[in-house]
Amino acid sequence: xxxxxxxxxxxxxxxxxxxxxxxxxxxxxxxxxxxxxxxxxxxxxxxxxxxxxxxxxxxxxxxxxxxxxxxxxxxxxxxxxxxxxxxxxxxxxxxxxxxxxxxxxxxxxxxxxxxxxxxxxxxxxxxxxxxxxxxxxxxxxxxxxxxxxxxxxxxxxxxxxxxxxxxxxxxxxxxxxxxx
Amino acid sequence: xxxxxxxxxxxxxxxxxxxxxxxxxxxxxxxxxxxxxxxxxxxxxxxxxxxxxxxxxxxxxxxxxxxxxxxxxxxxxxxxxxxxxxxxxxxxxxxxxxxxxxxxxxxxxxxxxxxxxxxxxxxxxxxxxxxxxxxxxxxxxxxxxxxxxxxxxxxxxxxxxxxxxxxxxxxxxxxxxxxxxxxxxxxxxxx
Lengths: 180, 191
What we know:
heterodimer; A: mainly alpha; two-stranded antiparallel sheet; B: Rna Polymerase Sigma Factor, Chain: A; Arc Repressor Mutant, subunit A; 2 domains; 9 helices
């Protein structure tokens, strides 16, 4: 046997005397370098075990794990809990499929109901909203459509307030209503 | 086991009791830090509890649990590589009276083996921690945890031949480190 073959055998069993073949033992008796290698390997194994001795898990490890499980169960958000309720653990796949199907059916029914409650889009448009402005000078109320003209009214109102200071009891009102 | 799968928490608690030392030791040896190992072990059991309903029993429970712990330990090691702070077995701890060394009990060997110096043990431990993750995993599982080749192949999801070759390489690397220590005169090896 060559030194290389012997060393492979030595590493494979940590040079354990009981596991060495006759050929390897014979080689070791004649080869100082391989014998040294065998001794080194046996020491490596001892060092490995003495450097990494077994440890005991902290005494209350099991209690801590169980309390964390309890904590997580209590602090779980509404979504996981709803999921657990709707798709409980250990359900077979057909039950999950049924649950998903029910959810879809409910969504479709809800959508249909919502559409039926909406005003008819084909009906003639309602009259535009009007704004009545009771001006401070008592002038007749002017009407305007809400889009754009409301902003104009507000601007005019602000200008009036700035240029004509009001008495404490002067009532200024901007009434916005919509005709139905 | 079956009761735990059905959601019986007490039954799961018994499983935790049964496997906590094994998993804790494995993680501590992989990470080189017993304190970090405590968190990772707890997390492994929590994940196992959450995934238990999906456990089909294709592998044994202890193999499955090891796999969860292995993935978590590898995550921690990758975070370390990204430079996130971690602890080490060799770093002194901060106490009220200043720094002190971590005491790791040696329950395996008698006085003659235990007489290896602290420096040697630290050097060997560093050598183990310096092994690439894949070699260290196999080394820890086979040499220190006492798992079989077949179980390790299942845990790491690699072929049996890969387990054996990784173990061979890991042993060789450790032997080389020891050789360096001998040559540097730090330890003596008799014939």
